[in-house]
Amino acid sequence: MGDTAAATPTVGIVAGEASGDLLGAHLIEAVREHLPQARFVGIGGPKMQAAGMHILFRMEKLAVRGYVEVLRHYFEIVGIRRRITEHFLREPPACFIGVDAPDFNLDLELKLKSAGIPTVHYVSPSIWAWRGGRIRKIKRAVTKMLTLFPFEARLYEQAQVPVAYVGHPLADMLGDFPGMQAARRQLHLPTAARVIALLPGSRVSELEQMADLFVATAIEIAAAVSDVLFLVPLVSRETRELFEAAVCRHEAQSLSVTILFGHAHDAMAAADVVLVASGTATLEAALLKRPMVITYQMPRMSWWIMKHQRYQPYVGLPNILAGEFVVPEFLQDEATPGNLGQAVLNLLSDATVRSRLETRFSSMLDELRQNTAQKVAAALLPILRGGIE
User: Fold this and answer.
1) What is the pLDDT confidence band of residue 182, given thresholds at 50, 70 and 90?
2) Fewer CB under 10 Å: which end of the chain, C or N?
């Protein structure tokens, strides 16, 4: 890879979902601050493409969650991995970066590392939550791990896996995000309104599973609070159609619902309380210092497998980072409109708890705000320039 790679390196990169697209775009911009000619190629989404990446496959093909769903798309996903592997073996990049998506990326990284291509994995798999045995495979597959959370780096150091804690770019992005009233002005909302943000997920499969749950919960809340407004940020036409279909099924057209295309951060910042599907959005809500209720549902077989492999009683990132239940979680059978509606109403009516959560989330923000772009670049540049720290 020599001098040419150091001057104008090609970087292979694969992200598999919306949160990875954001992280990947952030990483591309960080590296190009130092290597403006670097070329990024692989699998990504609209944010990575806007940052200048050459897309070989759209990441939506990989955005499948749960064992049953993966089995349904197994042959298509395996075919994409085979073709992307062949591409990178035929045209070796200076470095390959797998952004999250461990079930897809770790096998790819194993093959590329075996062929002498340095591999970086950005975002640790949740080995601290479930399937901890994966760290052995990670050690074989990864030249360097970049972690978003400080406790993860310690696990890799103990396993003698080269690692860098880089913080979370969302903390840098959201640390100075406008507060509630500014967000309400941006969205043309009454400043004194009671506002609930509903975030049922970014994937089509999540809306198929949970759109009805979120609509039925909104009905419960509106029955108790007559003047409540609901904000529903969705990322695609398909997810919007699924949510609107759920509104029609429940004959809930009288609800005061505003569906937004994107603008999730504005919606959360403007809300008194956020009802959110477990995932990166829970961390975003915490970094915006918003009280929340976390929920999730998935097909029963996927849930049964996941439940029997996890190590912790909580799944939401704010609770994992706190090491305790700081916000309520209602998963699978416990995720009922009654339970979720009551939990949201409890937060809506308790200013003391909301204030306490804001203080706790401020501490999380301070810990994760690490100037991630600078740290990512510092971890990657020695590899891209032909040497590994």
Assistant:
1) very high
2) C
Cα distance between residue 387 and residue 366, in whole Å: 32
CA neighbor of 15 nearest in space, from 4, 27, 6, 24: 24
Residue 336 within a domain: yes
Residue 189's SS3 state is coil
Region for 188 from its dihedrals, namely left if φ exceeds 0, alpha if ψ lies in -120 to 50, beta otherwise = left
Whether residue 357 is found in the same domain as residue 323: yes
Model confidence over 281-296: pLDDT tens digits? Answer: 999 999 999 999 999 9
Each residue's pLDDT tens digit, 21-38: 989 999 999 999 999 999
Does residue 254 share a domain with residue 163? no
- Residues 83-132: pLDDT tens digits? 999 999 999 999 999 998 898 999 999 999 999 999 999 999 887 666 67
Q: Does the residue 57 lie in any domain?
A: yes
CATH number at residue 61: 3.40.50.2000
Cα–Cα distance measured from residue 286 to residue 56, given in angstroms and rounded to the nearest whole number = 34
Say yes or no: 52 and 10 in one domain. Answer: yes
> Are residues 218 and 269 located together in one domain of the fold?
yes
Domain annotation covers residue 389 = no
Percentage above 70 pLDDT, the chain: 91
Distance of CA 307 to the CA centre of its chain: 20
Name the residue type at position 95. C
In this structure, what DSSP letter does residue 296 have?
E
Please give the order of strands across the beta sheet that includes 228-234: 257-261, 228-234, 194-199, 273-277, 292-296, 329-331
Q: Are residues 233 and 316 in the same domain?
A: yes
d(CA 88, CA 98): 13
Domain that holds residue 302: 174-368
| Structure confidence at residue 386 (pLDDT) | 77
- What is the model's pTM? 0.80
CA 245 – CA 337 distance, rounded (Å)? 18
In a domain, 200, yes or no: yes
Q: What is the phi-psi region of residue 101: left when phi exceeds 0, alpha when psi lies from -120 to 50, beta otherwise?
A: left
Asked whether residue 116 falls in the same domain as residue 242, the answer is: no
pLDDT in tens, 222-261: 999 988 999 999 988 999 999 999 999 999 999 999 999 9
Tell me the helix, strand and coil percentages in the chain, rounded to 5. Answer: 55, 15, 30
Q: Above 80 in pLDDT, residue 352?
A: yes
